[in-house]
Predict the 3D structure of the following.
Amino acid sequence: MNKLELQKTANEVRKGIVTAVHSAKSGHPGGSLSAADIFTYLYFEEMNVDPKNPKKEDRDRFVLSKGHVAPGLYATLAEKGYFPKEDLKTLRHVGSYLQGHPDMKHIPGVDMSSGSLGQGVSVAVGMALSAKMDNKSYRVYTLAGDGEIQEGQIWEAAMFAGHRKLDNLVVIVDNNGLQIDGNVDDVCSPYPIDKKFEAFNFHVIHVDAHNFDELEKAFKEAKETKGQPTAIIAKSIKGKGVSFMENQASWHGSAPNDEQYAQAMEELEKAGEALCQ
């Protein structure tokens, strides 16, 4: 895909996020929107995956460590063709397979059930180690939140990954600066994030999470890095793409009402039209 197509796709993913969370009347739009471009790049450009064969053996693996931003992952999987986009409207409804957190048993394309914060990186490290032990070529990607990396288990996993030189592992930190209680640096500062990962023998790359040229360069660099895992620190805007949600911690876990939904969708429609000019 070229950059313009990626931008258009990410805009459709954002529409899916807002639609799903509005239909559920609950969920996490802020962090889903901040990660929409990352999801889009991973699934439409970077990863070797096939919606027609979600369990193919040599597929790249993805673990959503910050599982509460499931709406972002689901909207991307639907856009990629893993399941009908119409199903996004069933998010968090009784009987729906699209639960509030990813469920590997019922959702095609989900490699790991997640939601307990801090655990996803450990799982991804296990998958990457497994690939090494079996001489498999697949790569493993995991997305963590900058609030989530306040969890100690993240750093145990990082220590192990660095020690075992898991160069088939990429940890992406969605660095939108906000968590449920406010600014991450006020709650319990994780900074400097880069120096911490470097101390655990990670190759660290900084990117603008909303710039596809930078994302392309970063993931290429990660592939070329041998003998150490990579951490991509992706500076992002919480709520990106919906004006009244941007940089507002209050949209971490609230759903838009009907009026807000209409405004958000109108903004995203206009953004999509602008990309078609």
